[in-house]
Automatic annotation (TrEMBL):
GO cellular component: nucleus
The entry's keywords: Metal-binding, NAD, Transferase, Zinc
Lineage: Eukaryota, Metazoa, Chordata, Craniata, Vertebrata
Sample GO molecular function, one term: metal ion binding
Organism: Oryzias sinensis (Chinese medaka)
Pfam (any one): SIR2
Residues annotated as binding Zn(2+): C230, C233, C254, C257
Cited InterPro entries: DHS-like_NAD/FAD-binding_dom, NAD-dep_sirtuin_deacylases, Sirtuin, Sirtuin_cat_small_dom_sf, Ssirtuin_cat_dom
PANTHER family according to UniProt: NAD-DEPENDENT PROTEIN DEACETYLASE SIRTUIN-3, MITOCHONDRIAL, NAD-DEPENDENT PROTEIN DEACYLASE SIRTUIN-5, MITOCHONDRIAL-RELATED
All residue ranges annotated as the Deacetylase sirtuin-type domain in the record: 92-354
Protein name: Sirtuin 3
Entry superkingdom: Eukaryota
Catalytic residues as annotated in Swiss-Prot or TrEMBL: H222 (proton acceptor)
Length: 370
């Protein structure tokens, strides 16, 4: 399933791997002998502009234009990357934002509609292995289940033929085995302050819910263990109704028809939940996007990073630069690289919210123990 997610300032297109990417087409200004401006597309790998002959322009204006072009060639990022000099990229130098800038504007409530995107990297500090890290990812630890290939455990066709390996893995991942960490509680704190628009998570571990983030503020893009459905008669179940069977190592069966009951997580070959379509209204409204702990490799989730308006700051808290933070950075982008919890704590400290976060975590731990 691929959903078109694009910007408004430049041409967009599907990338070679299914991702929605920005075209390299830029606009060039040609001036004829009457100094009339015309736009024509130029597909070029160069960030520099070609200046045609300008016989009727004064020496002053020639020097002025050449000065602009020189600055555009030597400082392309300040002019909006590959966008045209006089088009959506803007004509004024833009100062790169910092983590302190993001903290200041958040603290001053300049951002009241914060969208959050999160991946497996926010859960690994809680002890949950991610899916792709060499040597420690879940895919590397699935050989014990005698699968034809690691990904088969999350393929719906294989599940229908042999659900046992999935439920053996589900026993390890089932909500309740792990606890939220400061990253999850930080998002809850954003909600408490009335600044969280929505959290979009790739995770199926349920730690966002355990941290107290309300379900209406969550879009669990890859599904959830909180609910389940019979694969035969489609009867609905609460997640906790499956827990005894899963924790005993059995395949849960439907009480009505005897069919296999599958948690409502998204397998390869299944559609994303309808709730994912909330991005269509959420991301145009967002005034800040925070992306944490994700490789931005799985579509269509990955393309959400480009769905906010180009003027909206994007903060990446991640081990490495990923996605548009590698090939399409904006002046409003801020990268806090390294361990995710450490990056969140640096932001919280800059916000002056450390005591509030600690109090929220203490209350959450006490509630979960009850």
């Amino acid at each position: 399933m691929h959903l078109p997610i694009g910007g408004t300032e430049s041409e967009m297109g599907w990338g070679p791997e299914g991702g929605f990417i920005q075209s390299k087409t830029v606009s060039v200004i040609h001036l004829d002998q009457q100094t009339q401006m015309q736009r024509s597309p130029l597909n070029s790998d160069s960030n520099c502009f070609h200046i045609p002959s300008l016989p009727n322009l004064s020496v002053f204006w020639c020097c002025f234009l050449l000065g602009l072009v020189t600055h555009r060639c030597t400082h392309p990022s300040r002019w909006g990357g590959s966008r045209g000099l006089f088009t959506g990229g803007g004509g004024a130098s833009v100062v790169q934002l910092t983590l302190q800038d993001i903290a200041r504007s958040l603290r001053d409530r300049q951002h009241k509609r914060v969208a959050v995107m999160a991946g497996a990297g926010i859960s690994t500090p809680s002890g949950i292995p991610d899916f792709r890290s060499p040597g420690s990812g879940l895919y590397d630890n699935l050989q014990q289940y005698d699968l034809p290939y690691a990904e088969a455990i999350f393929e719906i066709g294989f599940f229908h033929r042999n659900p046992a390996p999935f439920f053996a893995l589900a026993k390890e991942l089932y909500p309740g085995n792990y606890r939220p960490n400061p990253t999850h509680f930080f998002v809850h704190l954003l909600h408490q302050k009335g600044q969280l628009l929505r959290m979009y998570t790739q995770n199926i571990d349920g730690l966002e819910r355990l941290a107290g983030i309300p379900p209406e503020k969550l879009v669990e893009a890859h599904g959830t263990f909180a609910t389940a459905t019979c694969t035969s008669c489609l009867q609905k179940y609460k997640g906790e109704e499956l827990q005894p069977a899963v924790m005993s190592g059995s395949v849960p069966k439907c009480s009505a028809c005897g069919g296999v009951v599958k948690p409502d997580i998204v397998f390869f070959g299944e559609e994303l939940p309808p709730r994912f379509l909330k991005y269509l209204t959420d991301f145009p409204l967002a005034d800040l996007l925070i992306i944490m702990g994700t490789s931005l490799e799985v579509e269509p989730f990955a393309s959400l990073a480009g769905a906010v308006r180009s003027s909206v700051p994007r903060l990446l808290i991640n081990r490495d630069p990923v996605g548009p933070f590698v090939w399409g950075r904006r002046p409003q982008d801020v990268l806090q690289l390294g361990e995710v919890v450490g990056g969140v704590q640096a932001l919280v400290e800059a916000l002056g919210w450390t005591r509030e976060l600690q109090a929220l975590m203490a209350a959450g731990v006490e509630q979960n123990e009850e």
